[in-house]
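Input.
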Amino acid sequence: MATIDEDLSALERDIRQLKIEYDMYFGGGRKRPPTEIEWRIDLIVKRYGERGGEMKFGQRFRFGNLSQTYAKYKDIFRKRLAQREEGKVQRHFGAAAKAIEAERAKAAAAAGSTEAAKVFRVVCTEPEKEPDKVEKLYEAFVRAKQEAGEAMGKMTHAGFNEFVRKKTKDLQKQKNCHEVEYVIETVDGQVKLKALVKS
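Output.
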């Protein structure tokens, strides 16, 4: 059985993933809202909402923050879903709208270097001591993959963390460098993750 801290970490990951998947849904990258993640989050929130007395002060504080973040997101998602439902009248133009979006995507891809926002960079020295950096890199990688319509394949969250840790150590050893810069960019609709030697 998972510990309270493990459950809270899972809750934090699920809330982040929920936001990513809802953004995809509203952006047209998903056909249905991510109800399975929402259901999982609701279960943990309900469980610990009733068992607050079992948590230490730090755990209660963390749970409170996560619950507030989730409640805030839920409110935003609910409003956006309502707006989407109210926009049913315009659904007759769905095919035309999709065609326009496709043209925009093509134009953006053709623009290439002007898509600066599509490039994500982070510099690592000791990934195991920089979990926030690695987490942001992972989120950017997942988001880029989803936007490009690419599957994650066998790459898991833990596997990605291990890859960054090992790659950083290998490059530091081979190139005698201190910093390694990871760059995520989308080229011709394909997501690339590069590791560059800094200094």
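The beta strands are 120-124, 180-187, 190-197.
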